[in-house]
Write a structure and sequence with these properties.
The protein is an alpha+beta fold. The chain contains nine helices and 20 strands.
Length: 345
Amino acid sequence: MSIGFAEVRIVKGSALRRTELDTVILDEARAQRRDRVSRPVACPQMTLNAPVVLEGVGLHTGRMIRMDLHPAGAGFGIVFRRTDLGDAPADVTDITARHDHVGDTMLSTVIRNEAGTSVGTVEHLMAAFAGLGIDNVFVEINGPEVPVMDGSSQVFVETIDAIGLKPLHASRRAIRILKPVIVQDGLKRAALLPGEGFKLAFEIEFDNAVIGRQSIEADFMSPTFRDEILTARTFGLLKDVEAMWAAGLGLGGSLENTVVVDGDHVVNEDGLRFNDEFVRHKVLDAVGDLALAGAPLIGRYEGTRAGHAMNNRVLRALFADRSAWELVDMGASEEVMRPVAVPAE
């Protein structure tokens, strides 16, 4: 199934609001469609080369979930459709992956439309889309949560690698940060700062002998980013498990998809993928949460003890100040890493 640009209004549903950023991107896509014969595209928007299916358990719901990823046209963005809701109209079933559609941030990022329909734990899939430079995908999902797979973005990345990507005849645009935007809540802090490319710095501190205090600087544009950040798994403390279950969360968690820490040791038999896997996963989460901006960011992100809520707050603060950002064409020097597209057989 391929969703064309002309179908955007139908798929998104009339009840979903269009932001200023959406309008600019859609207008640009229309102009480039008119000029496609005479106007070469140096840094094109990307979609999937073919549909792909993923199945797995939801980390918090414990339900088995099937997710079908479909190619989509330029300017479409990332849209989720809840296929388990039967013949409900698009304004009930469809949710655009966007920062202002985030409805809950307790232990994951949940997006929700105006009808109340939601999809949770979107951050690992969104991080995979961002890391691979994917702009447009139509996601059909038969439940309320993206499957957790191995607890990182690795399965999503490898599955998409296997089918490859398809360039579209429309230029990528990026959000350049023009001035510091900072949100703070006690010891928690998240900031978006001006800069070139996109870099992330993160610091965590846990009262635990295994995790302790960790910090990292990561360059999103580095060819090693996908292997060194997008493979870091979600984690939790064994002492918190019962409280999570009582809250109806973590019902699908296991040693197959979560790094579990019990006191002074890691419970997982294979141990850690990195000595600082915990802070690396926080960077992965931040990449997925910030992908809800709707376009790649140019600048620097800093997070201190930040989580999904702070990541969403800093995005909302950015877009609340029109003087803090601008939309720019992406040149070759600002293009994010992408796998080599594999042609369909």
